[in-house]
Amino acid sequence: MAGTDMTIRILKMYEKLRCGKEIQKIPFCMEHEISERTFDRDIEKIRLFLSEEYSGREVQYLADSGCYKIPEQEERGELSIVEFTLFLKLLKGDAPLEEQEYQGILNSLRTVTEKGKEKKIQKLIQEALEQYEERKGKSAYLKFLGDLEDCIEDHNIIRLLLKENADSSTRIIFLPVAIEYEASELYLLGYQPEEEGLKVFSIEEIESFQITMKKYGKEIETKYSYQEGRSLLRNMQKKRRGYGNGKKN
What we know:
three-stranded antiparallel sheet, 10 helices, Arc Repressor Mutant, subunit A, SH3 type barrels, 8 strands, five-stranded antiparallel sheet
């Protein structure tokens, strides 16, 4: 069979895929009078072009519809290998995760990372686990954060026990409104009853907490400003750096 000129055919195929359209093999082969083997070679040429372009886009075969397509990133629902590597670097930071939690996150990331890179992903995970260092922190750190987030969502008033306060009678009644991240550390922000102003505690300062039977009203939630919280944390970090350099305010 004569078939369509290869250059024109591949350009037409690429243009369809680039526009997000689906291509079914048999109808395309019949339309352009080519064999299925030729179709496969054309697809491979486009895949090679995309990989050399470093665009993050690729031709995928959709088994449910039996067609080929270049999905949009949000449609793919996958992390690119670059995104995966970035997450690994962030996880190697100062978060005091247990080894089991750390490995669990790595495995979760692996399941949502782009296909076809399995060997590279496994190598990166193996290296990350070999470089893992146990950090002092809470057991079940992620669960602790999740429980605090639930309290914030449910507007629960809680009792905080700080590490330096071993006596349970010194627990602090606290109205938590946010958990924020600043300078490699997580902080709990909120208010204390009958006290003015936003209060902040490092997650590492908190030994434990208890949920009371009381909830705070919507007025506390609306009172909190993300910008105010960020400003408070930045000022606190500036003071820390100042004292660390032997300066006094």
